[in-house]
């Protein structure tokens, strides 16, 4: 289905839990966030119902996010059912990788084809500081297990000035001998820290760093490609990409809507507009389809995060998924 601005919306992101086993500094405040009790979280059958309805509007790709989706009991069985829904052509998963080593083969068997793995530093000390206690070793073991299982891998690095921006070239090097996509993401001030502007390293600055060291070949976008501007280092097995939500909006090509773990649907991560789908789950399917159609039709042309006049309500990324 096309929205009112002519964009083809074929991609749904589902956050199946607000719980996470890390406390990443760009995702939530240091003291964490209040967690929703189990009664407030949608059942897996509710998510399947939403996806079935969404296929009638042209949704063909689903990405499962959190929180950390692998902390939710029963997720593997759910993913298998999700992958078998007629009309869904691809199911992918975003994870922090901590539990990946024990689940990689099961994810592959459940129909997962692609993983986005959050990895913000290759230095154990820096990694622990960013995640407030995470184990880099566990994530690297998870990546190795995912590759052995035959899953396609994207590594997502949120670049933060004075924190990990000196590792941009080290991440790029991982794409040379591995068939992985390394993606650099501009820091987004979703939790509205007082000094958030000083953390942003623009996509242009990241690109300059890369071009000073490597010859980059621009790549084309696939049908379900995300917002990254993709490149390949000459001769590399993998690719790199730069995602610029702050310095250069990609809103004109955005093809997605989102549903969080409590059933709130949003057409834009960085908008306060949302629609509660829970009442529609109790009605015949055409009502749910109509609600999702309303979300798509109300999708704004672009967000204004970073503008002085923006008054977006701060939120934890774990509550809606990145």
From TrEMBL:
Pfam families: Mob_synth_C, Radical_SAM. It catalyses: GTP + AH2 + S-adenosyl-L-methionine = (8S)-3',8-cyclo-7,8-dihydroguanosine 5'-triphosphate + 5'-deoxyadenosine + L-methionine + A + H(+). It comes from the Bacteria. S-adenosyl-L-methionine binds at residues 26, 67, 118, 188. Pathway: Cofactor biosynthesis; molybdopterin biosynthesis. GTP binds at residues 13, 63, 94, 154, 256-258. One of its GO terms (molecular function) is 4 iron, 4 sulfur cluster binding. The keyword Lyase applies. Keywords: 4Fe-4S, GTP-binding, Iron, Iron-sulfur, Lyase, Metal-binding, Molybdenum cofactor biosynthesis, Nucleotide-binding, S-adenosyl-L-methionine. Binds 2 [4Fe-4S] clusters. Binds 1 [4Fe-4S] cluster coordinated with 3 cysteines and an exchangeable S-adenosyl-L-methionine and 1 [4Fe-4S] cluster coordinated with 3 cysteines and the GTP-derived substrate. Belongs to the radical SAM superfamily. MoaA family. Monomer and homodimer. This is GTP 3',8-cyclase. The gene is moaA.
